[in-house]
Amino acid sequence: MGVTCVSQMPVAEGKSVQQTVELLTRKLEMLGAEKQGTFCVDCETYHTAASTLGSQGQTGKLMYVMHNSEHPLSCFALFENGPCLIADTNFDVLMVKLKGFFQNAKASKIETRGTRYQYCDFLVKVGTVTMGPSARGISVEVEYGPCVVASDCWSLLLEFLQSFLGGHTPGAPAVFGNRHDTVYGPADTMVQYMELFNKIRKQQQVPVAGIR
Amino acid sequence: MADALSIGVNLEAFSQAINAIQALRSSVSRVFDCLKDGMRNKETLEGREKAFIAHFQDKTPLYSQLLQAYKWSNKLQYHAGLASGLLNQQSLKRSANQMGVSAKRRPKAQPTTLVLPPQYVDDVISRIDRMFPEMSIQLSRPNGTSAMLLVTLGKVLKVIVVMRSLFIDRTIVKGYSENVYTEDGKLDIWSKSNYQVFQKVTDHATTALLHYQLPQMPDVVVRSFMTWLRSYIKLFQAPCQRCGKFLQDGLPPTWRDFRTLEAFHDTCRQ
Fold first, then answer.
1. Pairing between strand A3-9 and A34-48?
2. Residues on chain A touching B245 (C-beta within 8 angstroms)
3. Does domain A3-49+61-204 have CATH number 2.40.320?
4. Is the dihedral angle over the CA atoms A32, A35, A36, A38 positive or is it negative?
5. Dihedral in degrees, nearest 10, Cα atoms B214, B215, B216, B218
6. Rounded mean pLDDT of chain A?
7. Which residues, numbered 196 to 215 in chain B, qualify as contacts with chain A under a Cβ-Cβ cut-off of 8 Å?
8. Do B155 and A153 touch (CB under 8 A)?
9. A interface toward B at CB cutoff 8 Å?
10. B216-248 tens-digit pLDDT
11. pLDDT score recorded for residue B50
């Protein structure tokens, strides 16, 4: 797994989510990228059950269970500032068994789906973030396969992002700052997605075009 | 009765005449039939003649193919002559063998650089290994006496170098995260990298091992090659010295100048 940067693309003025996604994909195709199937990243939230909280009134922790179509046999479980566990897909079944300790907040299930594009050694994924039936935003993920040290290739990634995102290029992800010389892993990508989803959940719903 | 006789004679003549007329009419109708069908008959005869001749004709395109092959081989010979003239301008022999020594006069001393004790090769390699902190070299001899090196450069890339005594024969450059071993656990010296950038660097490394040549001092050659290779530690961090950008067609600057070790894009180098 190469160094990956996940960012959000703001919806263009006066256009819908769908149209902005189409604009992006057209720009990518003009650059010379080839379509290579689809991808999906989803995230479910679990609250620690009230019965397990002590009498001192500890605040419950939120656990996120995520899946990434890039790693179809794995399941990622992470706490906000805590460790990330990479497990088998049977972990979902295990969560059902742990109903007494972790309760699923079904309403906050969020996912992003879209197409994958390959350009030279870059893998670009543009997806529509949906929560239930409504589209809430656009996620852009760029992976540079050959490099595995985040701090090495940020400038390179930035240049590539600028070539098709234009002015909406993001800053360096927080995970890049934390790990200076350690090898980048899929867990870091999932942390970025988790932060993106949390940001989108807090945002207001995207206004439907035409309604002011 | 005479009437009957005379009638009989006349009757004979009549019947003869009728017969004659019948014969005439049938022959005339035959003539007309022949005239009517005659053309067709002629055609079928000609057609049959053609078919008969074609039966014995040679259908294989042997002659035209032969002609093409002759023209092609003539052109090949001409181009090969031109190419050998151009290639002989720069000596490409890397060993110290002298060409053109006549069979009568045996060379007095065998070229020593091709036959070196493996211990000497090991020593040279381990010395180079200690030279650069970010580069580690592992030596193994899975196939006979030729050494195979696995050079790991920081967390950027891995290079497999196949040697022939102290001369570098082939190199393959792969990413740090890519697998360099086959399913058997042996070093995989044939499969290319999955990434275009490392395929490009492999091509450049092959150019480099042909560039650094010094038949009498192969350890200097290996040292220069490793110094050149070490400049790739900043493969993803260095912009191109010519255009100032990081990416060109999706590739970072993969070319390292042989003298100055500066980074250039493949398309930006002079």
1. unpaired
2. 159
3. yes
4. positive
5. 70
6. 86
7. 196-198
8. no
9. 1-2, 32, 119-122, 145-149, 152-153, 155-156, 159-160, 163, 181, 183
10. 888 899 999 999 999 999 999 999 999 999 998
11. 86
Cβ neighbours of residue B143 closer than 8 Å, sequence gap 6 or more: none
CA distances from B163 to A188, B91, B119, B136, B160 (A): 40, 21, 14, 17, 10
Is B250 in Cβ contact with A159 (below 8 Å)? no
- B35-46 as b/e, with b when 16 or more CB fall inside 10 Å? eeeeeeeeeeee
Burial class (CB in 10 A: 0-12, 13-18, 19+), B265: buried
CA B52, distance to chain mean position in Å, is 46
Q: Which residue of B has its CA nearest to A181?
A: B155
CB contact under 8 A, A159 and B195: no
Structure-block tokens of residue A8: 């959000």
Count helices and strands (H / E) in chain B. Answer: 5, 6
State what percent of residues in chain A have pLDDT above 90. Answer: 47
For residue A90, the SS3 value is: coil
SS3 for B75? helix
